[in-house]
Amino acid sequence: MTSGSIAPAIRSVGARTGTIDRVPVPDLCCLWAEQPATPMIIALAANLDGDRFAGASGAELADRVREYVGARLHRAPMLRRVLLPTRLGQGSMAWVDAPAFDIAEHVVLAEPPPAMDEAGFATWCAQRSILPLDRSRPLWRMDVIPVLPAGRV
After folding, report:
1. Separation CA 115–CA 113 (nearest Å)
2. Are strands 107-109 and 94-97 parallel, antiparallel or unpaired?
3. How crowded is the C-beta side of 15, counted as CA atoms within 13 Å?
4. Measured in whole angstroms, how far is the alpha carbon of residue 93 from the centre of its chain?
5. Rounded to whole angstroms, how far apart are CA atoms 108 and 77?
6. Contact call for residues 64 and 81 (beta carbons, < 8 A)
7. List of residues 6+ apart from 41 with CB closer than 8 A
8. How confident is the model over 73-96, as a mean pLDDT?
9. pTM tops 0.70, yes or no
10. pLDDT at position 14 over 70
11. How far is it, in rounded angstroms, from Cα 16 to Cα 84?
12. How many CB atoms lie within 10 A of CB 147?
């Protein structure tokens, strides 16, 4: 492929940040189909034993999770990639390394309703999982909830 056949937007981002990977067709289908009424988001919920975090404020807890996740991001480089939209004739969208990455934009301290029970937690997770992600950043978010029933995080 010659440099003349690469679209300027792709060439400039690729030169600045590294490799370019075309978005696979199944992912493209989800991206194209996504609308406010049909979010294409995969959500996972995890409960941690709160004893390990006893005495930590919500902000301290979020910082500890950011540190933990940040130290392991090299194992999942896709979590540092953003979508590069393309124009007609440039091929399908591509994944490129994010020019700037701030883990604090992805691991966030959540503020759910106080005194949330198990059903409330499930409802909160369902409602949170339909919020669209900012496509100008890597497409993931981790919400840290400092107080759950039975002392969990």
Report:
1. 7
2. unpaired
3. 8
4. 18
5. 20
6. no
7. 129, 130, 132, 133
8. 90
9. yes
10. no
11. 13
12. 14
State both tokens at 54: 């006893």
C-alpha–C-alpha distance, residues 31 and 135, integer Å: 10
Averaged pLDDT score across all residues of the chain = 81
d(CA 33, CA 3): 32
Token output for 47: 């409960």
- The rounded radius of gyration (Å) of the Cα atoms in the chain is 19
What's the chain's length in residues? 153
State pLDDT tens for residues 27-53: 888 888 888 788 888 888 888 777 777
Q: Quick one: 70 exposed, middle or buried, by C-beta within 10 A (0-12, 13-18, 19+)?
A: middle
Asked whether 108 and 142 are in contact (CB, 8 A), the reply is: yes
